[in-house]
Design the sequence.
């Protein structure tokens, strides 16, 4: 998960934290009795999920009642089942506990805890904190007794499956060294599908069951290994039927069947922890609809809405192993499922859960399942359409012939044949499919290793990309229209388009993407201070573009203190010209707010007690388009731009009352070019304690209507971070700017409290040239408790600076000093408050970052 996604997740979890009042965080099963009916125990799977209605309103009702209802379950004595089982090793995941079991014949089973702890899946900074507890509470999205219901229904479909059963496992000798840790808990017992399973018809009596990693090696290593795609499509449709969204590669095993000429692999789904998940409640709704990382999730009910997003976790297996089926194949698979999932199967399946639990949610789930079953053909067609848009065809490390027949302007046929050791093409084709432009936007063919042959006949049809990583393939092409060839670069098989649209509302914190306007070579933009931001991001990631193909962000910002508003667009087209990105920036400030006390190093101190007297307001519009290059520690960009500025001439302000140059109030248009370079070599972007950060920029600006007014401007800064001890850091920054020509005040270099000279008002001094120096001693130490994990620190600073203008004689250096407090929660963001003192005034500066 990226830092941005972590930040959004933190925002949601912090919101959830507001409504948590209880500190109960027990993960143990509550045992009520074990004596009334021998061999059984009455347990509560998760009593800690029983919360107040107020809590549930915001955190979600989920399946809390199911978790907190007492049920009677059978006891599991390991030496009395399957010929006697012994615990051999710990397993499970970060979110659940598990044990591997084995009998005397060598067959294996798995015990997995019913209860989950999502907090263990968070980054380590969150462990032991209230955020981990919030995440733990959200395990109530899952139905604790779902697995046996799924196991019953799936066995009627012909899909290979495990047979999960729920038991209470009392402490016993057979647990061995794991007895104290794992005894007296509620578990799911199921077979472990691995290696020889010829005794198990529910695994197809396969003599070899493998994992997904091994399957990739086999299928992409040799064309004689193929996945049974019809069986896989049927299994994936069953996932949609039960709402199981966690179908990443590790959730699949594959039964091997030797054949002549090909070996076939059929899917075995496992770990049905995500079936029937509920995402009700205000904050879970935000997390699954607005916050970013969870937008592929969907509350389980009678209808599936987001086919594309819902299946995002399954992309690594869906794309390579569901690429040969027709629309009719998918519909037929859906009809087979509908025929096998009768009302009786669904109703009986749901009654595999304890009667006490069925009384709570059983009837609702039965109704939802019947509705989804009835809609399976719709899901099949939608799933097919989604996969058909961008198709990846992957060869193997052996030799193949890829025959591409452009049948007409709308259809393209692809056949793949074996080439044997005698260089002979073996027919018939082991892959054949006809694609339509109405369904498919592009076909990507990865030839992998070997001297493959690519033959293309005809013209028109679907766009095709041919990828030859080893530069060993031969090409025989009648026409290269709508065809691109990529040679000499290694690509993963899974490089089809990803499209992401996100929305987030972010109070107080500046969005990191918006900081491109802070990397401002000639200081054309004003700063906001305390603000709220709304951000819309669109981030497609298609083929051959690292990280993304292009990014688009629309941001609306409101500054509370200055009552300033800005709407901005930033677009970046990756590797648009060679390895250079195309960078587009548009910003409108309505108004932009800025202080102005006059021009020069000796401008008098404020004579008005009302500090807003020195405010200026202007409407500004900026549009720029240019080139940008990011590589490692370096960042360079250059772009021509247009800027419009109209300073408002109204109100009782210093500028309107006393400033002599009245032309400043005229609407002005500027054209120019700016360039900037940045080197950041620090051990952290959040709280650097070692390294350097260097910036330099410059540009030329021309007043479009007044040819006599233009200027050249350059700026630079260098920050050095020196670790004195483990906790103490010396941070020193020097910077400034120079310019020549004729410029309005808002284009001049300036010094002030929010950027480079604490203890003074913002934009206190304007001049043609400027210099500033910031010095800090920072002390920060790690701390962790229930409410906070991260760093707490103190700082002391000394700042100095001045500006120059022609004709002014001044030896004055403006100085300030002060101290502050830093909070760095979870090492993700710095909240800093400093109090600065100068000869003019004192100033309190609050930021969501280090000052430099």
Sequence:
């Amino acid at each position: 998960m990226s830092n941005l996604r972590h930040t959004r997740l933190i925002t949601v979890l912090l919101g959830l934290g507001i409504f948590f009042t209880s500190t109960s965080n027990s993960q143990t099963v509550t045992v009520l009795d074990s004596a009334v009916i021998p061999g059984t125990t009455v347990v509560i799977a998760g009593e800690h999920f029983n919360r107040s209605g107020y809590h549930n309103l915001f955190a979600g009702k989920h399946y809390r009642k199911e978790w907190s209802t007492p049920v009677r379950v059978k006891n599991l004595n390991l030496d009395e089942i399957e010929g006697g089982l012994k615990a051999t090793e710990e397993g499970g995941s970060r979110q659940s506990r598990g044990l591997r079991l084995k009998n005397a014949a060598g067959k294996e089973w798995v015990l997995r805890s019913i209860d989950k702890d999502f907090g263990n899946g968070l980054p380590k900074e969150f462990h032991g904190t209230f955020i981990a507890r919030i995440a733990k509470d959200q395990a109530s999205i899952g139905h604790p007794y779902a697995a046996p219901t799924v196991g019953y229904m799936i066995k009627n479909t012909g899909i290979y499956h495990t047979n999960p059963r729920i038991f209470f496992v009392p402490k016993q000798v057979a647990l061995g060294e794991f007895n104290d840790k794992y005894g007296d808990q509620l578990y799911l017992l199921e077979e472990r599908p691995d290696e020889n399973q010829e005794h198990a018809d529910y695994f197809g009596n396969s003599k070899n069951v493998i994992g997904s990693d091994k399957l990739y090696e086999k299928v992409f290593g040799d064309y004689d290994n193929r996945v049974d795609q019809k069986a896989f499509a049927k299994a994936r449709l069953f996932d949609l039927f039960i709402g199981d969204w966690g179908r990443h590669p590790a959730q699949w095993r594959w039964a091997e069947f030797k054949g002549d000429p090909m070996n076939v692999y059929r899917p075995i789904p496992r770990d049905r922890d995500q079936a029937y998940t509920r995402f009700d409640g205000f904050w879970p709704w935000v997390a699954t609809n607005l916050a970013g990382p969870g937008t592929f999730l969907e509350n389980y009910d009678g209808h599936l809405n987001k086919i594309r997003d819902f299946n995002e976790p399954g992309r690594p297996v869906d794309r390579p192993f569901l690429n040969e089926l027709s629309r009719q194949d998918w519909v037929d698979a859906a009809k087979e499922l509908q025929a096998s999932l009768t009302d009786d199967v669904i109703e009986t399946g749901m009654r595999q859960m304890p009667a006490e639990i069925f009384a709570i949610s059983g009837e609702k789930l039965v109704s939802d399942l019947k509705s989804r079953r009835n809609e399976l053909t719709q899901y099949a067609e939608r799933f097919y359409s989604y996969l058909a848009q961008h198709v990846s065809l992957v060869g193997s490390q052996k030799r193949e012939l890829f025959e591409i027949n452009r049948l007409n302007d709308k259809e393209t046929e692809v056949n793949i044949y074996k080439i044997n050791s005698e260089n002979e093409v073996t027919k018939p084709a082991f892959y054949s499919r006809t694609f339509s432009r109405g369904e498919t936007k592009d076909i990507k063919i990865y030839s992998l290793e070997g001297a493959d042959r690519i033959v293309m006949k005809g013209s028109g049809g679907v766009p095709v990309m041919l990828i030859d990583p080893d530069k060993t393939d031969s090409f025989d092409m009648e026409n290269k229209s709508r065809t691109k060839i990529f040679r000499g670069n290694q690509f993963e098989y899974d490089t089809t388009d990803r499209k992401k649209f996100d929305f987030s509302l972010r109070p107080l914190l500046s969005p990191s993407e918006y900081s491109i306007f802070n990397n401002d070579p000639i200081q054309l933009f004003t700063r906001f201070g305390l603000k709220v931001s709304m951000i819309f991001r669109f981030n497609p990631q298609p083929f051959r573009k690292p990280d993304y193909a292009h990014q688009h962000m629309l941001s609306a910002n409101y500054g509370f203190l200055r009552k300033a508003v800005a709407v901005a667009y930033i677009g970046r087209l990756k590797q648009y010209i060679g390895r250079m990105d195309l960078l587009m920036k548009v910003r409108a400030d309505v108004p932009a707010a800025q202080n102005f006390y006059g021009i020069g190093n000796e401008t008098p101190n404020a004579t008005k007690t009302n500090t807003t007297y020195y405010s200026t307001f202007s409407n500004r519009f900026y549009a720029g388009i240019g080139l940008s290059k990011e590589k490692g520690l370096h960042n360079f960009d250059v772009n021509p731009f247009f800027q419009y500025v109209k300073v408002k001439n109204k109100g009782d302000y210093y500028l309107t009352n006393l400033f002599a140059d009245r032309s400043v109030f005229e609407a002005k248009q500027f054209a120019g070019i700016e360039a900037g370079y940045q080197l950041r070599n620090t051990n952290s972007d959040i709280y650097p304690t070692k390294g350097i950060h260097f910036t330099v920029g410059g540009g030329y600006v021309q007043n479009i209507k007044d040819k006599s007014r233009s200027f050249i401007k350059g700026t630079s800064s260098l920050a050095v971070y020196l670790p004195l001890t483990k906790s103490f850091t010396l941070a020193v920054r020097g910077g400034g700017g120079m310019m020549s020509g004729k410029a309005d005040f808002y284009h001049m270099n300036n010094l002030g409290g929010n950027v480079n000279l604490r203890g003074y008002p913002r934009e206190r001094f304007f001049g043609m040239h400027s210099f500033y120096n910031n010095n800090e001693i920072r002390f920060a130490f790690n701390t962790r408790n229930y409410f906070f994990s991260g760093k707490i620190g103190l700082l002391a600073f000394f700042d100095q600076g001045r500006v120059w203008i022609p004709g002014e004689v001044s030896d004055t250096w403006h100085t300030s000093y002060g101290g502050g407090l830093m909070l760095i929660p979870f090492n993700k963001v710095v909240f800093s408050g400093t109090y600065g003192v100068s000869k003019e005034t004192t100033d309190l500066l609050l930021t969501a970052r280090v000052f430099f």
The chain is about 20% helix and 40% strand. Confidence is low (pLDDT under 50) at residues 1-26, 492-514.
